[in-house]
Amino acid sequence: MEQLYSMLSAIMGTDGLSRLFYMLFPLFLVFELPLTILVLLGVLRWFARRRSSVPKTSLYRPKVSCIITCYSEGMDVQATLLSLCEQTYPGHIEMIPVVDGATINQPTLSAVRNFYVDPLLYPRRHLRPIAKWQRGGRVSSLNAGLSHASGDIVMALDGDTSFDNNMVSAIVRNFEDPSVPAVAGSLRVRNVWGSWVTAMQALEYVLSIHMSKIGLAEWNLVNNVSGAFGAFRRSFLVKIGGWNTHTAEDLDLTLRIKSYFKRHDLRIPFEPEAIGHTDAPATLRQFLMQRLRWDGDLFFLYVRKHNHNINPDLLGWPTFLMILVSGFFFQLVLPFIIFIYTLLALFILPGKTLLFLFALIYLLYLLITLLLFGAMLSMVSDRPRQDVTLGLLVPVFPLFMLLIRCWSAVAMLNEVFRRGHEETSMAPWWVLKRATRF
């Protein structure tokens, strides 16, 4: 025993700095483990409820309007329209593809106009395309679609995303509850094995997005209704003014909806059976540029735009605490802690101590990843044969998440010092220039 202690002391180092690094490391787990446990408990609750539930037949069949934001998808938008035509939903589906900047996006406009909806083959499916000749951005397209939508339920969809044929049916059943203003859908990566970058994102989508939202939805703590795939009650959406100009319109709208939680006892469910398939960035550079925008937008929304809304009188205590922990700490503070901790360790610790510390951190996060992956396969996955192949990526996943966390710190610095949200490709500069400056 003494020999083992001596060996560990030799590796870990006896100086104060080395011991300080080992003392600080468990603090990460103190904050991260409770959230992981909360997600797993939610998944267990969802799984038990699902196993014991009895299938119900509902006559609730409201008209659904699908706003499809299009820009440069070309013929790919027809795959999205076809997947909506082939929905098993027995009610009416109104498809509203909005082509932004139609003057320069003629291939996309032609693809939309040439798409034919056979009334015999696809009854109760209606195509109402909108051409926006001058580019106004994603928010402009969504609000244009909303002004023409006639359905009780409005879906905001991306033009390059296709859907399982039970998607609309799965989404709509949640709106039978009048306390539901919005429903979050699930996204999967379509080009899974296009590159190692897309493969890692596929695993991230399944673990960090799909399964996490299942667990959090059980406690009414869904963090975001994705802009690529979300559904809303039109009457509620119109009352709050639709989508707001600026970037990250999905999280912006989610936070605005949540500001009514305390006063009206609302909830946002997540529908795991409503699945969309989208293409993820295929190169590391494309991926990092996407996350530069996504993670920088978090700082803009939480700190600059919605800081006055982050209080329990509007959100209710559960949502307020979740935003403090998940939104502020995990998304805004923890990336800097990890980034600084990693840099200091690289420059200060001796070689053996550094390797031992990083190996310890890696093994602990690998264990957490294996636990989440096992829970996903056994309780969550609706296509386990496809998802089990992602297990090959599990050993690398903790390193990939470290990269994401460190890059998040860079993205937020870009937002703090350069106001990165004003450089977004989601809208032209003149639209952002006219928006309220926060």
UniProtKB/TrEMBL annotation:
Coiled-coil region: none
Domain Glycosyltransferase 2-like positions: 153-365
UniProt-listed InterPro entries: Glyco_trans_2-like, Nucleotide-diphossugar_trans
Keyword Ribonucleoprotein belongs to the record: no
A GO MF label: glycosyltransferase activity
Any Pfam family the entry gives: Glyco_trans_2_3
Chain segments annotated as transmembrane: 20-48, 320-348, 354-377, 389-410
Keywords: Cell inner membrane, Cell membrane, Glycosyltransferase, Membrane, Transferase, Transmembrane, Transmembrane helix
UniProt keyword Heme, yes or no: no
Family per similarity comment: Belongs to the glycosyltransferase 2 family.
PANTHER family associated with the record: POLY-BETA-1,6-N-ACETYL-D-GLUCOSAMINE SYNTHASE
Stated name of the protein: Glycosyltransferase, catalytic subunit of cellulose synthase and poly-beta-1,6-N-acetylglucosamine synthase
